[in-house]
Amino acid sequence: MKKTLALFLALLSIVYLLNPTAGIFELAYLKTKDKHMKPFKFILLLIFAGASSPFFAQTPSKQLIAEFDKLLTEQFKPGESGCTALVSQKGQVLYKKGFGMADVELNVPMQPDMVFRIGSITKQFTAICILQLMEQGKLGLQDEITKFIPDYPTQAHKITVEHLLTHTSGIMSYTSMKNFQDIMRKDMKPVEIIDFFKNQPMEFAPGTKWNYDNSGYFLLGYIIEKVSGKTYEQYLEENIFKPVGMTNSFYGSNNKIIKNRASGYQPGNDGIVNADIMSMTIPYAAGSIQSTVEDLYKWHQALHAYKVVKKENLEKAFTEYKLTDGKGTHYGYGWSLSVVQGSPTIEHGGGINGFLTNAIYLPNEDVFVAVFSNSNAKPPNDVSVKMAALTIGKPYNYKEIPLDDAAQESYVGVYENEEGMQRIITKADKQLFSQRTGGPKYAIKAYRNDKFFFPNSLTTLEFQRDIQNKITRVISAERAAEIIWNKTTKPIPSAKTEITVTEAVLSQYTGEYQISPAFSLMITKEGPRLFAQATGQGKNELFPETENKFFLKVVDAQVEFIKDINGQFSKLILYQGGQKIEGTKK
Length: 586
What we know:
By secondary structure, the chain is of the alpha+beta class.
């Protein structure tokens, strides 16, 4: 027996050397109750399983790598703005690469360790700082914010630290304010920015609704400073970056020399342009951090090894916050909660001038994916989700099934959600289309009975029927988010009829119409055709239904040109999604 045990331990040590995750095998051996099973044969079985099972594989397959490469190169092409990507499973990095350009002007290729602005991924760092201070007894999650900011006008509401963490405070997000663009380039102190937004009206009573709120996380940064006696930047450096070993992570700065910093880009009228300048004092604790995919992975590992906060507190951050009416928010403290092909996720994205980022963790499969893009024109969200799905062996690869005309016709109709928004299903040239109020028309394809997918999208539609087999509603789903649309008897809106307008009339409408400080509609003419181009978007043709009112075919929207008292067309009105938005000609 002693020889057998010695042999077992020797072989087990080999298993550990070949596969560190094989500790589960030791547990299986010790728990076996079958006295008739020969230990030696059992060990050989376990070694074989550890070497061959994909569940314990330590080296990704060439096919998986090729699939990752394909997904990323389709979106991030050579010579254009690029991305970095990292995928890990069970504590081992499976994939880390860079694509495209880090600096388009200087022709610098992207490398996987380039430094990006990570935008709102910063929020999870802020949330953990708050939990650290809570563990030290310096604050409580149910503390009212006036304990730390006595003069903050709560407008007779009780606003807690937890409300700030969960985007349920009701405070207006300062980045949504009309005059936000006026301060974007200014270096400002935290208290000055708080003064900028603190007197805005509350959007709802705290805890009753969820609305993504940068003001809440800005206030959390200020609370960190008040409680710790350090600047937010100092606190990050001393309590997060240094202990975790994040040597390529920084509080953002436009002036500091940061090696391997990627340049940021945004859409322009003729391709991409350099991103608008933003002072990094503005995003602060809501979005100021710069980092790499490697450093974010180090952060992920430290968190889940409970080296930063205790297990019970980390679990609070990953627990869905419930509103006062019991409804879920799909959000914890600094992380969103969703699913990838049925597997729960803990994740967050970031968006800031010139950069878009996304990071996803699947705890059941221990899979982590991070993709950073250095252009606001190339979001990484869908590609990171698809990479996660590939890693767990559940790729998004819907295959279309044929439908006859009668089957297609059964889905056609007007559907409405509880807010009165419409989803219209139409049929043309043997193809079904879906169009939401104010949105473009998209083709939908069947992949199963009553189930449809949108090509190049993660959204699906599932139609439901009553006992008479008549369709009563459709559920649109994008991962964990679902919306129910009930079928109505309303007729499909008739197609608008175009008329002919002379070029001389069209010429009166050309020019730039400012809708907000950072958003305009550029109206141009090409021969007898009129076009509209919104800031950062593509050019779309306008089709006249009257001499001064036009409609778009790619989206449910209309543009009406308004004449002033001098007989000049100096204003337009954009009608879209039930809204009436004015623009003034520059």
